[in-house]
Write a structure and sequence with these properties.
Elements (H helix, E strand, L loop, with lengths): L2 H20 L2 H17 L1 H6 L3 H15 L4 H9 L14 H14 L3 H12 L4 H8 L3 H18 L11
Length: 166
């Protein structure tokens, strides 16, 4: 498979994945673009991987976790409302407001914890694959998920966050 064929068939999936990681469509586009540039530059190595899609997703997770410099990181820091109080909505648009609360709470999690939640609940990966994608041990990956869920539970309405176990 050529890089062009790979990109054409996987780009939309990568874009959705990046939105889950970043919580922002514009940042997700930046993340996908940077990841795909790197994938193209190293296409020979990527194409020889057992799962090129998994390889590129790991590249994306690593880039997301390490993306601490540059305009994207500053925009997130400037936009962050980490000190804001989370409130429980009572209006008719409660579902939309709940989603907003989830996005806000996810945005305040450390990157490794957020990535672990995306890999678990969006990608539906088992602990071993999450650990592989994050480049850590299975116990550390489980710890990220556990700490993230505990943090979300303390910040949000208990009905919004469930801690399904595997």
């Amino acid at each position: 498979m050529t890089y062009e064929e790979f990109a054409a068939t996987r780009l939309a999936s990568f874009a959705r994945y990046a939105v889950m990681l970043t919580g922002d469509a514009h940042s997700a586009q930046d993340l996908v673009q940077e990841t795909m540039v790197r994938a193209q530059l190293h296409w020979r190595k990527v194409s020889r991987a057992e799962s090129p899609e998994g390889y590129v997703k790991r590249m994306m997770v690593n880039l997301y976790i390490d993306w601490r410099r540059g305009p994207w990181w500053r925009r997130v820091l400037l936009r962050s409302d980490a000190g804001a109080e989370v409130r429980v909505p009572v209006d008719l648009a409660e579902g939309a407001a709940d989603r907003d609360l989830v996005w806000q709470a996810l945005a305040r999690l450390p990157r490794q914890q957020r990535a672990a939640l995306v890999l678990r609940f969006y990608e539906d990966l088992p602990d071993a694959e999450i650990a592989e994608a994050l480049g850590c041990t299975v116990g550390t990956a489980r710890g990220y998920i556990s700490k993230a869920l505990a943090t979300l539970r303390t910040r949000m309405n208990p009905g919004l966050v469930s801690g399904g176990s595997r």
